[in-house]
Structures are given as C-alpha cells and as structure tokens.
Design a protein that fits this description.
The structure is a single chain. Helix content is 45%, strand content 10%. The protein is mainly alpha-helical and 156 residues long. α4 runs parallel beside α6 (101-116).
Length: 156
C-alpha cells in the first residue's frame, strides 16, 4: 500500500507528524545545567542498550534542533510530539529545587520555531527522573510542580 493510499483511508483532519523522546535525541547530558536522569545510569549499564550506547550525545538534537525543524518543515510535517526533560528543566527534580532557565529557554524556543514553521507542537512532560517513582508520596508532589512549571512556561 502506498502512502497516498494510506492517506486516502484516514480522516481528512488527520494530522501527520513525528515524535521524539528527549533522552533519545537531545544529548548534551552535562550541558547548561541539565541534571542527571534515571536513564543516564541505566543506559551506561552493560547490556541495557543496543551497542552500549547512552544518551550523552544521542542524535545531538540539543545543538541541532534548528536544522531538524527546518527538515521537518521541508518534509511537510504538520505536527511534532516531543518530550521535555525533567532533569533539564528542574535539574535536581524536587518540588523545592530551582528551575533551570536554560532548560525552559530551550523548549520555549523549540516550540516557537515549530509554530513559525506551521508545525503543531504536542508537548509531553517526561516523567522519568533520578530516583524513579518508588516513593509515590514524594514523586507525585515533585511531578505536579514540574508539570506546573511546564504549563506556565509553555502556555503561550
């Protein structure tokens, strides 16, 4: 089946797009105030990832996002689902820990560039952080704070 045939079977208002996950693409693990995530340690354990790769560089999207958005626009992409990295926005992850302005700026600029290229952003507040979800009483309160920071920073 060709892509045109598939497209004809979908509703006319179906939105074609791309999706990414911050840890898998961003890289720059120790840049601009990003804290450690649970994925950092996990990916460095032997046998846990393909070819022993980790997220330190990934696809280097942290540095190359402008070029990537230009490619998405060139391809005619209509939407982009991406995740914000908790450890890039609140490096230590806690509800009383400081917000990293460089992390906020990255995602704000990314969203604005998508919109400038007529690409609809779908933001996922990534839920992985160092320490995981083992202490639900604490993590829920921390995640609520993280989600509020994201909603306030990116609501425009």
């Amino acid at each position: 089946m060709t892509s045109a045939e598939i497209a004809n079977k979908l509703p006319k208002d179906f939105i074609w797009g791309f999706a990414t996950a911050s840890f898998q693409i961003e890289g720059s693990a120790n840049v601009d105030g990003r804290g450690k995530s649970i994925c950092d340690d996990f990916s460095k354990q032997p046998g846990k990832t393909m070819d022993g790769r980790d997220g330190d560089v990934a696809t280097d999207s942290y540095r190359l996002w402008k070029e990537e958005i230009a490619l998405l626009a060139q391809y005619g992409v209509k939407s982009c689902r991406f995740s914000s990295s908790w450890s890039r926005i609140i490096a230590l992850g806690g509800r009383n820990d400081p917000v990293n302005p460089k992390g906020i700026a990255l995602y704000s600029n990314f969203i604005n560039a998508l919109l400038e290229h007529h690409i609809i952003p779908f933001v996922v507040a990534l839920h992985g952080r160092y320490g995981g979800w083992s202490n639900k009483d604490e993590i829920v309160q921390d995640y609520v704070r993280y989600a509020k920071v994201c909603f306030q920073a990116f609501r425009d």
